[in-house]
Amino acid sequence: MASGDSLRKSLAALSPTQFLHFPQNRFETLLDEFLTENGVGVERGVELESLKLPLDGSATKQPEVTLRHLDTNTLEKASYDYVVGADGAHSLVRELCGIDMVGTRNLQSIANVHFTSKALSEAARENPAMLYFVFNKDVVGILIAHDLNKGEWVFQIPFFPPQESIPWDFSTAQCKQIVRHILPKNVQVIDDDINILSAGQWRMGARVAKQYDAGEQRVFLVGDAAHQFPPAGGFGMNTGLQDAHNLVWKLALAIQTSDANSITSDDIDTQGLLRSYGRERQLIAKTNTQFSLSNVARTMKIPRALNVSHDNAQTLAKIINSAPMQLLPLSAQREIAQRIMGVGKLPLGLLDETKDAGGSGSALGNRMRASVKDIVTRRKTLGMMFYHFDIGFSYDAPVWAARAKKLMEDSALDQSVMFRTNIGDGDNIVYSPTFRVGERFPHFWCTTDNSKVSTLDITRLASQKVNPPGNTGTVQFTLVVGGWNVARVVDACSSLSPAIAKHVSLVVLRSSVDSDSTNIEAVITQARKSSSFSSVLSCQVIEDENGNNAWANFIGSKAVALVRPDGHVGALWKTHELDAFTGAALTQSMQHAFQLS
């Protein structure tokens, strides 16, 4: 196992920012502040009442929506060019569009208890973590450390409605008792230390929308409206953000086709561009669904070793919801369910280390603890870092489908994703960013305008030279070229049409391999004066800080990369292919980059 310093160095080579457990309530607050700072208005107290799609053959293509203003209870009708449904798992937009979901609606109902406890945080400091799996004869659940320093927690508990309900089983007093059962027996806690913030319920599902758009690509689904995963792996919010990242630039470009001075519908297939959103993102959602289910199965190995497996919970759900049970009063159903759950948790009493060391219970408990330790030591349970799926996925559908299938196999998941390799197809399970069409442009460090920046930000920086913050501006593709090839690229792009050039920024990466710095600087100056590019950005690669060899990979075989507005590589040209690099070839590659799947 690598040291902490080695781990941090390896992670730093992948991205300028690192993975973080960030609670949704805090993310929403941060997002609100960001929107306000950027002059984006958010209307509160307005809900969707109805949505009508344009009829086939209709002259108007705009969806019509009816909105209800809750403060005045008045209705407002309006038509919009596009509607985006980001309205969650119970999406009304999805329902009104008649889009079905495919998969399992309810794998397990879960009760969430959100609370604070300084005593629990103090007890957890000996073994700080993001997730704790709690098994004892009183409670079974997953404890999530929202903020260990502030003592903020969420406890997730298997839940069996309608025999159980939040009002009946999760009152403030009951929730405080649950928290006490989480605490080690040697930890004393006063009543005021436990503050119950909320208790609620949700259903863990595994579903993906049959389609991501409706009304001839006028209505789109993003986030939980389009997919729901089990939380194992933490893909829910990340996948939703990726959806929006993929969709917004395509919507913006489609809207800009109506600008007389911009790219036109003759240059791109607008409908194909917007259809590509669903094609590209649906595969990612399906893969993440499969992976989340695989992660759930891996987490079940420990409960199974403790004789309290998920299979038992499923059996309980079938029993209490069977036809004979439904004939009984709900109170009787509740009592039977609670008795069965009590019996089901009896094996966990054997884990009590206060039992007599010579007793049979203690021996069985030791055996169960040994089984759990073996599972964890051999990495047979849930991992925590999934860089291939978080940032290493590809919009090249066949390539990603095959790769993801291998990465989901136990033989791969049992290994450290950072430090072991064993897949055997020339690739390895260690995530190492590569220059491939469909994948995110790799991270390495550069300097520009006396600032240190990641290559992940060069598309944004190049765009800002054209579109100052706060301005809508034009959608920008970024042409990334090594300094030694810039003259050939600038010459080839002189034939770009003004409509295309308006959407292309040039980024020149300078380094020690540049043989003629003076000439390169002259070419960059020439490019800035020309009309071939909307902007030109010169960056100096910091070669001694790029530990993942991404820069060496680029200069070794790649000459030019076309990067989409979402940061994914749309096209690549190798050094020996530059003779075929022309303005026409770039235009054609942009067409392909619109829809990679």
Automatic annotation (TrEMBL):
Identify the keywords attached in UniProt to this record, alphabetized.
Answer: FAD, Flavoprotein
- InterPro entries this protein is in? FAD-bd, FAD/NAD-bd_sf, RIFMO-like
Any idea where the FAD-binding domain is? 13-292
Q: Name one GO cellular component term.
A: mitochondrion
MF terms in GO: FAD binding; oxidoreductase activity, acting on paired donors, with incorporation or reduction of molecular oxygen, NAD(P)H as one donor, and incorporation of one atom of oxygen
Q: Name one GO biological process term.
A: ubiquinone biosynthetic process
In its keyword annotation, does this UniProt entry include Zinc-finger? no
Taxonomy, superkingdom: Eukaryota
Stated name of the protein: Unnamed protein product
Question: What is the protein's species of origin?
Answer: Phytophthora fragariaefolia
